[in-house]
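TASK: fixed-backbone design
INPUT:
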């Protein structure tokens, strides 16, 4: 685990302990059950939205709403999650990804709620999941998918969190950075396999990370290439190698209209 990831996970444990004091797990579960009965936040089909794009012969874009990052600082000062979500939907995104980590990415659960309410797209809660509490919390805020990072938790914990997510009607995106993590991720049920092209130690980004791992991925998995997609040539390279799903944020967050930028890069 990289130094920055270790730091983030340590922060998550502190946040988790504080959250449990304020709102116990039973209370979060009760809220999820209440929402399910009332029809609030009915799960949207995250995997279905991706497959629909691919079946139509198009790239499937998980468009990210991100205000800041540990390596880049503030990426978008003029930050309105609802407007960005609508723009992404108009630009052709299949799904959204919303950062909810507060300390390192200046995210918020409220940002996810605002973005989801503003459009019809399924939404990924982009955060560092280490405990069952966060999975129930994700559903309570309206998330349709959660992220599991193989570098952050072991296989047993990933399996536990995946089962809870699936039982709650959510999809799971498992993220890897290398062959060792890939071996673990392939033991999960989810078809969504994210390959992060950013080195967690150096923060260097290379699309070769995705290309090098493709030969080890069995049929039936949906490969999601993450980080390093900035121009149409990047998209063409991936699609030539049968990778049709992309998680992209920073490239769009820096543009005046994120949805227009998405459309130009992927569908222009």
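OUTPUT:
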């Amino acid at each position: 685990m990289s130094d920055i990831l270790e730091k983030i996970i340590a922060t998550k444990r502190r946040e988790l302990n504080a959250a449990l004091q304020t709102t116990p797990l039973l209370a979060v579960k009760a809220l999820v059950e209440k929402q399910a009965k009332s029809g609030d936040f009915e799960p949207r089909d995250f995997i279905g939205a991706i497959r629909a794009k691919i079946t139509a012969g198009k790239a499937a874009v998980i468009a990210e709403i991100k205000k800041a990052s540990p390596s880049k600082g503030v990426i978008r000062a003029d930050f309105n999650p609802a407007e960005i979500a609508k723009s992404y939907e108009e630009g052709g995104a299949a799904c959204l990804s919303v950062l909810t980590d507060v300390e390192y990415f200046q995210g918020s659960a409220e940002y996810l709620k605002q973005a989801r309410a503003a459009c019809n797209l399924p939404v990924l809660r982009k955060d560092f999941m280490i405990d069952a509490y966060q999975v129930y919390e994700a559903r309570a805020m309206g998330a349709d998918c959660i992220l599991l990072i193989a570098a952050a938790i072991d296989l047993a914990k990933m399996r536990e969190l995946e089962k809870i997510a699936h039982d709650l009607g959510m999809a799971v995106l498992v993220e890897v950075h290398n062959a060792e993590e890939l071996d673990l991720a392939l033991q999960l049920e989810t078809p969504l396999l994210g390959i992060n092209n950013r080195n967690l130690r150096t923060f260097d980004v290379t699309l070769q990370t995705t290309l090098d791992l493709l030969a080890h991925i069995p049929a039936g998995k949906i490969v999601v290439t993450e980080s390093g997609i900035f121009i149409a040539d990047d998209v063409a390279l991936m699609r030539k190698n049968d990778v049709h799903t992309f998680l992209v944020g920073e490239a769009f967050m820096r543009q005046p209209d994120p949805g227009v930028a998405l459309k130009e890069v992927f569908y222009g």
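COMMENT: The first helix runs from residue 3 to 22.
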